[in-house]
Amino acid sequence: MTNPKGSFIWYELMTSDPDGAARFYGAVVGWTIAAHGDPAAGGVDYRMIGRSDGGQAGGVLALNADMLAGGARPAWLGYLYTPDVDATVAAIGADGGSVHMPPTDLPVGRIAMLADPQGAPFYVMNPIPPAGQEDMDSDAFSVTEAQHVRWNELMTSDPDAAIAFYRRHFGWGQEGAMDMGALDAYRFLQVGDVGIGAVMPLMPETPAPAWTFYIGVDDIDRAAAAVAAAGGTVTNGPMEIPGGEYAMNGIDPQGAAFGLVGPRR
Question: What is the CATH number of domain 1-265?
């Protein structure tokens, strides 16, 4: 893999109803989510999210009864690339982070699930590329393209500490900010010279630090109407953002929070 360390290389929707999620995100984003789990997932219902260009946007993990009983709830999670999962997990554990799933080998690579010191969960992964494609890049994240995640936003109780944490462990940069007045600053994040997202303070109505992933859509007004028509809830926006496009936030019918970004046509 040629993506830099710290890149978002995969996104996963945990949901109680993968068929319902397929209908919802198909209508809103244009994705095709497989009707059945991937046999390579080894006993869990894990389905791939297909884009119209033939690529993959991520995966869907069906939450079974045991997972729900253990406290799992519908949510989106991101995967950060690291060439050494074990070393990354050890360093994060020693730096105040928590380990929710220890390093584990899967047919697609070695992964672990962690949370930063403020409590926002994420995965780390060293993937196994398909044979003959050892130099392939992940394109699940794209700054500009619809049906990819285009922006990664961390809402956290301690922005300064979070920025320092991700800088130490993943090499991220933090240059530039947008003044949000009484809400403090919206600080931009980079991997190399690519803007990947931002960090902002935890809002009073938000229960815990978490990542929100903004999925690219072809037309923000069409997508917002589709959210409501397909049983979701629009919680904020659409609102104009720097550069002239529009962003919005929503909750899907199973309860997972998400963002959308795209033009107004």
Answer: 3.10.180.10
